[in-house]
Amino acid sequence: MKIGIIGAGYVGLTTGICLAAKKHEITIFDINEEKVNHVHSGKLPFFEKGLQELLNTTITKNNLHSTNDLDILIQNTDGCFVCVGTPTKNHTIDLSQIKSAIDALASAIKNNDKENYVIIVRSTVTPSTTRKILLPILEDKLNQNFHLCMVPEFLREGNALDDFMNPDKIVIGSIDKYGINFVEEIFIDFKGNCEFIHTNLESAELIKYANNSFFSMLISFSNEIANISEKIPNVDPYQVLKALVSDKRITSQINGQSIVPGLDSYLVPGCGFGGSCFPKDVKAILNFAQSQKVSTPLLNAVLQINDERPDKMIKLCESILGSLKNKKITILGLTFKPDTDDLRSSPSIDAIKLFLEKGAQVSAYDPVIKNISNSILLPKECTYNLKIEESLENSDAVLVFTKWSEFKSLNFELLNKFMKKPLIIDGRGFLDKEKFPDGTYYKIGFMKE
Ligand code: UGA
Predict the structure, then answer these.
(1) Which of 4, 68, 76, 147 could form a disulfide with 179 if both were Cys (CB 3.0 to 4.6 A apart)?
(2) Same domain for 282 and 188?
């Protein structure tokens, strides 16, 4: 099928490359020429496991094209995914990019007199946006028949290829059968055993928010249990939550085998969630609900608990070291999770700022963040090292914020060799406590002995 993608960002490129890999003829459009050139030159502007290799393959097959001319996209395709950003602005969702993308798309459909074009909203938008804001833009401009669908994405950074190729659901929100058939045909080779879930536009929009809010809630729930645990001697909150997961309403038993659900990895205490989706989407749906005069005590708490996590790490450090003024602190892990180079809303960045405010000297190391000069997110007062040993040198405390596998090999000998006095605070609860003598290893969520 001939399919267009509007927006060559993370979601657009992943969608385009994966569709091209299954023999669809893809044209990617972006207003930003640099982004178009990235696709043209076959170089991904971000890191995503396996995607660069897949891009190389699709380029050799010559079925992935890029353009900054919307007329070319319309002429070469029968429908397109709209994958532009919907960031947060002044605490609410900023729809300016998607509104102007839809407006430009309508003009291009009209100019090219294209009949029965299918517009598939892929960007995350608050409920009713597609019908009440985007549809009127199209209706105002077009005399031609067109079809509008809302098909949310459920791609996890670091796992996006597998999530796309083996989806657990394909939600198709639509207003007519033509749109449904078109989207089903696109995804038929990806469907595997999962079902198409047919909904209206609004339910499709809300499914996306419910999904992200649910997993965020699990993390904040785990952190609230950890907050309680910290006040009780000898309680291990990780064990408490593992026991919870083994409840057969969560972990099913099939032929004597326990089927542990994927959600168990979100039921783990830690230094908090981040990334470009969970914090943004929980804020957006919460503000949307409030605009509808719906109170959201649960979602408010999800964010509040999460916002306090970086400070929890600092307080734990302070309770061991005393004043942090002029102390040297090492932060390990800058990305919001492993297997990505994404720094957005990363808890470690909040922690760096808080340590700096307290007068500490901060150095940081991350396995993939090597070139920090063009990052606007990283505080300049922090030193960024290329080697873990350099970052540990002369340090009073090391705090681990990301579950990178490289950090699993941390041990007392290494800390002892480079630090002033070994002290490690594990913000993800994944290091092997046995590798560190008593009084040198602390895990978030435990009462300090
Ligand atoms: C999230 C959703 O998981 C995707 O389904 C969704 O499509 C995407 O947002 C989006 O809206 O575009 P992502 O932010 O990449 O994807 O990541 P997750 O892997 O779910 O991580 C989110 C947060 O949960 C991170 O802070 C991470 O550290 C934490 N997390 C992740 C866990 O605590 N446990 C895990 O097993 C995975």
Answers:
(1) 147
(2) no
Domain end position, chosen among 148, 176, 199 = 199
Domain containing 441: what range? Answer: 202-449
Residues 138 and 223 in one domain: no
Output the residue whose Cα is nearest ligand 1's atom 17: 156
- For residue 304, the tally of other CB atoms under 10 A from its CB is 10
271 in active site: no
Write down the pTM of the prediction: 0.95
CATH number at residue 224: 3.40.50.720
Backbone angles phi, psi at 229, to 5 degrees: -55, -40
Residues with CB under 6 A from ligand 1: 124, 153-157, 211-212, 215, 219, 265-266, 268, 273-275, 277-278, 281, 336-337
Strand order in the sheet with 328-332: 383-385, 361-365, 328-332, 397-400, 424-426, 441-443
| 259 and 247 share one domain | yes
Reported as a single tens digit per residue, the pLDDT across 177-236 is 999 999 999 999 999 999 999 999 999 999 999 999 999 999 999 999 999 999 999 999
Does pLDDT of 308 surpass 90?
yes
Alpha-carbon distance 12 to 26, whole Å?
11
| Residue 21 CA to its chain's centroid (Å) | 23
Strand ranges (E), 94-194: 117-121, 146-150, 170-174
The residue whose C-alpha atom lies closest to atom 33 belonging to ligand 1 is: 266
Residue type, 70: L
pLDDT digits (tens, 9 = 90+) for 64-110: 999 999 999 999 999 999 999 999 888 889 999 999 999 999 999 99
On whether both 286 and 218 belong to a single domain, the answer is yes
Please compute, for residue 297, the number of CA atoms within 13 A of its CA located in the half-sphere on the CB side. 0
361 plus 304 within the same structural domain = yes
